[in-house]
Amino acid sequence: MNALRSILFNIFFFAGSFFWSIALLWTLLLPEKKCAQIVSDIYGGYMTLIERYILGLKLEIRGVENIPKTGAYIIAAKHQSAYETLKLPYMKDLGYPAIILKKELTRIPVYGWYFSAMGQIAIDRGSAKEALDSIVKGCQRNLTAGRPVIIFPQGTRTAVGAQKPYKAGIAKVYRDTDAPIVPMALNSGLFWGRNAFFKKSGTVTFEFLPSISSGLPPLQMMEQLEKAIEEATDRLVATAQEISRF
Fold first, then answer.
1. pLDDT, average across residues 217-222
2. How much is the pTM?
């Protein structure tokens, strides 16, 4: 059943992405945040429908009370799957945040145009220094405009149970922007594996953890961030494994 659902989902995902990329071309002429709102509501809503009713995949969000109600902030999220990159930028609770992504994605015909139009932060990973500078500048621009920013501090998708170091880029962004950080744990990799064509039904959990205030020494922030995210992620994964009998 999961195999059949995955095949149908991928058909609707690619066909729907093509359709909405054409149908929403007019939004490219709008201001960044307005474009993000409309695309998020329509395309993000479409994705939620096919995830739930074709794939059988739902999303539970915890810890919304930990998201600042005012002011700019950074979300530092665990990254296990493409799932969170499809969900986080479209979340109304986050005020349609900007997300850091690979510059190659902006070169996808038509579909990639929306990343630039929505004000997402595209980085060229060819040069570490240039990539870091572009991340900081992009974060400062969006935070100044009142939009939260999403960063994956490990820099890439990490399989469930795998260990990857947290990169120093998050420390530089934290220091240079003077914005609080909201850690986010998840268990998406259990249901939507890294580069996996076949996916599993169930309930993915996103959990926003208590924020780390601005002004701490960067190394101290990094220690708190990694401890909070990894412990919460391990807990969410273990609970889902027990319930779903993976």
1. 93
2. 0.90
